[in-house]
TrEMBL record:
InterPro entries: Olfac-like_dom, Olfactomedin-like_domain. Residues 17-97 form a coiled coil. PANTHER family: OLFACTOMEDIN-LIKE PROTEIN 3, OLFACTOMEDIN-RELATED. Belongs to the OLFML3 family. It comes from the Eukaryota. This is OLFL3 protein. Transmembrane segments: none annotated. Pfam families: OLF. Residues 1-19 form the signal peptide. Disulfide bonds join 132-314. One of its GO terms (cellular component) is extracellular space. It is found in: Secreted. One of its GO terms (biological process) is signal transduction.
Amino acid sequence: MGPWRCLLLLPLLAPALRAQQQLMEYVERRLSLLEERISQWHDQSSRYSTELRDFKNQVLGMLEAAEKEREAMRSEVESTAVRVDRLEREVDYLETQNPAPPCVEVDETLMEKQVATAKQRKNEKYTKLTDCSDTIASVRAMKILKRFGSTSGLWTKDAAGNSEKIYVFDGTANDTVYVFPRMREFTLFSATRKAARIKLPYPWVGTGHLVYDGHLYYIRQQGSFQVIKFNLANKTVVDSSVFPAEEQIPVFGLSPFTYIEVAADEEGLWAIYATKEDEKNICLAKLDPTSLDIEQMWDTPCPRENAEGAFVVCGALHVVYNTRLPSRSRVQCVFDVSGTLAPEDASLVYFPKRYGSHSSMKYSPLERQIYAWDDGYQIIYRMEMKKKLEV
């Protein structure tokens, strides 16, 4: 192609070249904008990273301050707990400081007179004080509260009052009673820190004690057996009496540590005991809660052998039996002092088999349930009742 032809093509190619140049300029402007935006994004990202790092450092500082405050608060709580424990020990010490107990002297003449009077009233027909005519039909329910203390012991409420306090007698020979303000404290806390302590003037023997109308009736052995009446409010001995029975022996064959079982029912106070005079069977006596005198005595047909406990319901003695290899406890002998319930008409009541044998069984006439101590376990038995004539 000649030069003249190239000159002829230049006018035709000029618009295409200008368009290409404009396109390149447009692309460069777009790239410049993208670079500018990327630069802005980079600056913003750097700023956000710096702010996040500063915020993280601020949070870490606050966490360190909170940890220091938590440690300081924990130290204060521990210090407060130590002070509370010290205060509770001081309160327990003050509560156990009883006035000097009265001197209990045994008047031999009075004792002989009480024995003679009690023997004269022996096996007489009992005149009921109330119209209670119920008897136990069956065990309606059982509730295991916890395991506390020794294998043998006693726990109970006031059998004649509306107090919610729980009284715990750990062991068969001791002088300190634990008092929990309510069932909840006794159930939830395994230690005795939540319990007040009452130190008795004389140690108890056995598990036959009773809390009745604000007083503790417990058994003391000093040669002969004495029933001590102790006021729980002012922590003093109100009265004491030598039990008018000669040559006493353990009342239950499977509980050799208990010589007298003080019980309560709708009729009042009772004493369950045994003597060598009638070694095979259990004896029953009606107690005057005010003077501790024996109002009446009975020889029952209920044997001591294999007996592990007993309680009174509406004037009827219920004796609970087991075997030396623990099996299922059962009420196998019932003796009604008023004569309205024949032994052969009484229901044979079985208790659910649990751990061993009961070292104590306390009937609550207000709640119609039994507080039992079974091999260190505290159990409540709720009873199903029926009229004696319906059994």
